[in-house]
Amino acid sequence: MSTPIEIVFKNMDHSEFVEQRVHKEAEKLDRFFDRTGSIRVVIEAANKTHRKGDLYQVGIHMKVPPSGSLDVNRAKPQSHAHEDVYVAIRDAFAAARRLLQDHSRKLGGHVKTHEAPLHGRVIRLFPEQGYGFVDASDGREIYFHQNAVAGDAFNQLEQGSEVRIVVAEGEGEHGPQASTIVPVGKHHIVE
């Protein structure tokens, strides 16, 4: 690993073994993001008690392009498992790996986005004949039959009702046809 690493020990003595573990964990970071500019690791014995061992806090500051930084900084030790400095180091670097993965995805444009489901409002309803039309969010007018309405809610629909739509493959006699219509009710769809 060519990334410079600075290791700071607070409230504890310097340890070659701990330093080696930090270097080993830092090398794993290259698998997730190989352009880290520098890494600063602060290992601190958080409290001195005679009843239990010291709890360790591990903070990691990483410089990453473009001109930014990522920090793993837990104000308090996560659990009594952090009485073991190696566990505290492992957990901090696991959090650093997650941050680097997210950062790498953002830089590469691979951030998950969830598209709003196709939805619309009932614009015409023919209850006696058992069908209606929805003005869909994609601009189409979509025909639906009462059998496509989920939960036997056809009789509760009225003009202006907001619905989610699943369009059937191919077109029906009246153009695009819904295979499923789900009334939205109080839960509005956000685009």
Automatic annotation (TrEMBL):
Pfam assignment, any one: CSD
Natural source organism: Thalassobaculum fulvum
One Gene Ontology molecular-function label: nucleic acid binding
Segments forming a coiled coil: none
Residue intervals of the CSD domain: 117-183
Protein name in UniProt: RaiA ribosome-associated inhibitor A
A Gene Ontology cellular-component term: cytosol
Xref: SUPFAM superfamilies: Nucleic acid-binding proteins, Ribosome binding protein Y (YfiA homologue)
Superkingdom in the source lineage: Bacteria
